[in-house]
Structure to design on (325 residues):
């Protein structure tokens, strides 16, 4: 739960939106703030916060908040 | 000019890469110096450190191998999360006339000259995006602009470098990251020294400055693009060719 909140804050910071908007169903480009540039910022924030390096394939696959959690589990981030 | 800057340079063991390594060290950068040949930079790195009082980390990996690039960046980021400059210099050439060109030739050359550049940019740009600062310099070639007899494969790869430079410059400008290419003409390097004197004579006829370029002359342009002297230059292709026509 702690990591979920941490991830939610990172999403909110990357997109410049309120945390309340960050839900599992939030998908890439479903809001105007989650564009390709914000996605790049999001990746760098996640890598920094969890001290991991995300594979290119996973950068592309990270298409929703739910998917982000699934992907991060691969990097030993527990939710 | 590059004090407090962290730079990655690929293909540093000889030629243009070695001169860029030298001039960056001279200007105070901390450098992650790459080459594919293990041990090829050990001695020279120590020499530069003693000469200029900066830090040079030799790093041996193949830029075309994604796993090796990833491993290298894990090592780089463990030393510094700040990457200010990336010079993609590593490159290969396979020359052949159209009827004899094979898919395999294209694969080999593009793996290093194009995908290698993309691999490096993908990882380095992450640090640059975070810091909202960076300069990426891709070494293309005059051959990538004008083409050359027998160099269909090489020229295609270097033309691709120009295309990807211009596209990434547009994508990364939002993060204060500049991306430029250098297109050297005929530069006196170990690669060109192997050419016969008749071929060299022919090239010389097409160079208005009547001489071949020196690797240091390319390195000076790389220094310009790496430094804040070029703070408003992005998406450009800088020819360093003594007014050469092909």
């Amino acid at each position: 739960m702690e990591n979920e909140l941490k991830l939610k804050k990172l999403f909110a910071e990357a997109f410049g939106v309120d945390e309340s908007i960050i839900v599992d169903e939030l998908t890439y480009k479903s809001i105007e703030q989650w564009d390709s540039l914000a996605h790049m910022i999001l990746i760098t924030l996640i890598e920094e916060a969890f001290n991991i390096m995300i594979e290119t394939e996973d950068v592309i696959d990270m298409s929703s908040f739910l998917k982000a959690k699934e992907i991060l589990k691969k990097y030993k981030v527990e939710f | 000019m590059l004090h407090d800057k962290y730079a990655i340079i690929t293909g540093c063991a000889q030629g243009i890469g070695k001169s860029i390594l030298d001039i960056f060290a001279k200007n105070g950068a901390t450098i992650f110096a790459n080459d594919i040949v293990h041990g090829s930079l050990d001695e020279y790195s120590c020499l530069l450190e003693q000469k200029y009082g900066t830090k040079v980390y030799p790093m041996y990996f193949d830029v075309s191998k994604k796993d090796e690039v990833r491993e290298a960046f894990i090592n780089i980021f463990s030393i510094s999360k700040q990457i200010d400059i990336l010079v993609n210099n590593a490159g290969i050439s396979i020359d052949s006339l159209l009827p004899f060109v094979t898919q395999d030739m294209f694969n080999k050359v593009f793996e290093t000259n194009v995908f290698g550049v993309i691999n490096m940019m993908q990882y380095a740009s992450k640090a640059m995006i975070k810091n909202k600062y960076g300069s990426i310099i891709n070494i293309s070639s005059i051959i990538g602009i004008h083409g050359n007899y027998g160099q269909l494969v090489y020229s295609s790869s270097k033309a691709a470098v120009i295309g990807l430079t211009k596209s990434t410059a547009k994508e990364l400008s939002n993060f204060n990251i500049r991306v430029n290419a250098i297109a050297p003409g005929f530069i006196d390097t170990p690669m060109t020294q192997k050419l016969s004197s008749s071929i060299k004579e022919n090239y010389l006829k097409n160079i208005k400055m009547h001489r071949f370029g020196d690797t240091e002359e390319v390195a000076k342009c790389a220094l310009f693009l790496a430094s804040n002297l070029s703070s408003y230059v992005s998406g450009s292709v800088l020819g360093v060719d003594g007014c050469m026509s092909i």
User: Anything to note?
Assistant: Helices of chain A lie at 2-15, 36-50, 56-61, 65-74. Chain A is about 55% helix and 0% strand. Chain A touches chain B at residues 36-37, 40-41, 43-45, 47-48, 53, 55-56 (CB under 8 Å).
